[in-house]
Structure formats: C-alpha cells, structure tokens
Specification:
Length: about 425
C-alpha cells in the first residue's frame, strides 16, 4: 500500500498535501512517510515471526541507504539493529538510540580507530572482508584487551549469467572473501587469540527483483557451514545481507518479503542458526520522495527541458547510473502535455532527474520524484555550493522537519583564507 496518494487530484504524503509542505518548508524537499517506513520494516518482522527459523532473527537496517537520525530512531524503537560501514555511522546509530549489541559492521576498509571505536561500543559482529582486515582486528582487539566477534563475508559466486540483475554486484571484486578461500580464513580466525568466530555473512548485490539468486547463494553458504562444522568451527548466526529490490517503474514487479524470505527460512529450519538480515533500500526507498518546483520551461527544437530546483547534487542516482525515478505532477494542470527532460540547475550535462517524460506542466508547478527514500539524501552533495535539501517526515496529519535545510554559511564555515 502506498502512503503517497492522490486526493482530489493532489498528491499527498499520508494526510498532508504536498503543496502545503512546499509552502511551509520550501523546495527542494525530501518528504518521507512514517507509516511507509514502519510498514516496510514490519513486513520483515512479520515474516520472521511467522516462521520457526525466524526465531531470534535480527533485522539490521543498512544505514548507508538513508542515515537520518529520525529514521534510525524509528527503526531502533521497533527493535531493529543496524548494518554500519564506518565509524561515523556507528556514532550516528548510537546517537539515534541503537542497541550496540544489534550492530554489525561491514565494509572493506575499516581503520584501526574504527575497529577500536566498535570494540569499545561492544557491537554484535564485525563482517570481515579480507585476510589483512582479520589480522588487523586481532591486533587491535588484543590492544583493547578484548575478543572481537567476527563473521567472514563470503562471496558465494552465484552465476551472473543466469541472474542478470546481480551481474554488476559480482563485478565488485573488492567485496568479501572468495568462496574457495573462506575455509582457510576461518581456520585462521579460529586460531587467532583475540578473534571469536560468531557467524558467516554474504551480500550478493542490490536491487534484486528476482529472489532466486538469494536461494542459490544460501545453498552455497550452507555447504560451507557444513564443512566448518565438520572441522569443529561453530557458526552461530548467518547474515544474508541486503539487496531486496523495490519497484521504481510501473512494469517492475516487486517481490513480497515473504516470497523472498520464506524459501530462505525453509532451508534454514532445524539448523539452530540465528538469522541476520541487512535490508537497506527495501526499508526506505519507497517511503520517500523528492519534492521540487519547476523554475523554467525551455522548449527546444529537438528537446523540451523542464528546469527544476532539485539537481544531481540532491538525487544522484539518475546521473550516476541512469536510474529511473517516476516523476509525477503534484497537482493537475490544464495545459498541453509535452515531452520533457527534467533537469536541474547544476552545470553538468549529466544533471538530470528524468529524460523524455510526458508532462503537462507550467513554470511554478511542483513535481514529485518518487522512490527517492534510499540512496537519495544519503548521497547528496554540496556541488555548485548548493545547500542540501530539507528533510520532512509526515506522520498522519503532521509534518516534522527531521533535518533542516543547510545554509550557505555552513558550507564554507570550515574554510580558511591564507594570511596576507
Ligand atoms: C549496501 C549494503 C546493504 C544494503 O543493500 P540494499 O540493496 O540497500 O538492501 C547491505 N549489506 C551490505 C554489506 C551493503 O554493502
């Protein structure tokens, strides 16, 4: 169920009309629905609660998808844990009220300081991505007088040809430990004095709309667990990563969480493994939109441009990998429908939010760039000295600012002119 709906032809977030939000907070603005955020997490919790293999399971929201404190706090209140990839994200989740015992730490380049910070916070697990990282963690844990709980992030080598959705995921060779090297690295981990083997972990890619590669990956991981068990290396939890996709476009079919998770849980039944999941996009992507106003219409010979006040610095996904976001008029407009490239004011040809979109619009109209809750604000920059957008969360009939718009002064507050 969408929490962004048309009422009398005007697009609303829950019960709040988007023009009222633009009026009150200005544009560009990220607008989130509390009910949509909570509903997305609840879908995971319900499926896990209904399956015996979901007993004791932990949903660790992948913070990098959207790290606003209000969103983290809502998820923490619902019992979620967090998947972090930096010391900064650790500080953030703790500030948002996270339980450190529900935090897993992923990422290929953890510094000694970040490791120490996470050991001091007593997090649940380090997801180890290389032999060198394992050695460093052992050393740092020794200096801190601690045992570091680890899982190895194993790359299960799921055939990309049969599953084109994840083919880009498998090119990311910098992630994880090769499947064939995993056993030896587990032996090493078990032998290190300041390391404690806790689990096993994989994350095969992002925006998967076909859940079958997850099953294939799990089967490979389970085979590895059997080998480890035979060697007396006990695995307590299995972290299946994130990656479940969302619907960005009408012709896409979004798998339900049940259709993704139940086949995995069925395979895990009776094994006594605690399940950890790291969904990012799926929890926030369709719970947010980017509200923007048309500044100018610029008709051309070959192309018509709608120049809006949001740009690639606000939402990078279209420029970065030609990602599609639906762009909807917020209120009906009587004018003629034309085909527009919806572009921002940034001085880059790649600065577009959507290409060749049929729209009936005029200057001053509002547009909603849909499905912008994940990897939207989190990837925003200040390119062209553009203050980052305000973030607003709608809760029923209320709209709350959860991050105020930046000011230009703030953008150069840390800069210094040389002495005369
Ligand atoms: C990015 C990432 C996730 C979340 O991926 P989504 O596709 O947003 O669900 C989970 N785990 C790890 C290790 C990641 O890098």
């Amino acid at each position: 169920m969408s929490h962004f709906t048309l009422k009398q032809g005007v697009l609303h977030a829950e019960s709040v009309a988007l023009p009222a939000i633009a009026e009150r907070f200005g544009t560009p603005a990220y607008v989130y629905s509390r009910a949509a955020l909570q509903g997305a997490l609840q879908e995971f919790l319900d499926v896990l609660a209904a399956h015996p293999a979901g007993d004791g399971a932990l949903v660790c929201y992948a913070v990098k998808a959207n790290s606003n404190l209000a969103i983290l706090n809502l998820f923490a209140r619902m019992g979620a844990g967090f998947d972090i990839v930096s010391g900064g994200e650790l500080q953030r989740v703790l500030a948002a009220g996270a339980d450190p015992r529900k935090v897993v730490f992923s990422g290929v380049g953890k510094t000694a300081n970040e490791m120490k910070q996470a050991l001091d916070a007593d997090i649940l697990c380090f997801n180890i991505e290389s032999p060198a990282e394992l050695e460093r963690l052992n050393e740092v844990a020794g200096q801190c007088g601690r045992q570091a709980p680890v899982s190895l992030r194993v790359n299960p080598n799921v055939d990309p040809k049969t599953h084109p959705y994840i083919s880009t995921g498998l090119k990311e060779a910098k992630f994880g430990v090769a499947y064939d090297d995993a056993l030896a690295l587990y032996r090493r981990a078990a032998a290190l004095p300041h390391i404690e083997v806790a689990g096993i972990d994989c994350h095969i890619g992002s925006q998967l709309l076909d859940p079958s590669p997850f099953v294939e990956a799990l089967d490979r991981i389970l085979a590895l667990i059997d080998q480890l068990t035979a060697e007396g290396i006990r695995i307590h939890h299995i972290d299946l990563g994130g990656g479940l996709g969302i619907k960005y476009k009408d012709d896409q079919v979004e798998p339900t969480v049940a259709s993704y998770l139940n086949p995995l849980l069925d395979r895990l039944a009776g094994r006594g493994l605690k399940v950890v999941l790291e969904p990012g996009r799926r929890l926030v992507g369709n719970a947010g939109l980017l509200l923007t106003r048309v500044e100018f219409l610029k008709p051309g010979e070959g192309k018509n441009f709608a120049i809006v006040d949001a740009a690639m610095n606000d939402l990078k996904r279209p420029a970065l990998y030609e990602a599609w976001h639906d762009i909807l008029p917020v209120a009906p407009h009587a004018g003629e429908t034309r085909v527009y490239d919806v572009v921002g004011p940034v001085c880059e040809t790649g600065d577009f939010l959507g290409l060749a979109r049929p729209l009936a619009i005029a200057a001053g109209d509002l547009l909603a760039v849909m499905s912008a809750g994940a990897y939207g604000m989190a990837m925003a920059s200040n390119y062209n000295t553009r203050p980052r957008a305000v973030e607003v969360m709608v809760d029923g009939a209320q709209a709350h600012v959860i991050r105020r718009r930046e000011t230009v002064d703030e953008l150069y507050a840390g800069e210094q002119i040389l002495p005369a």
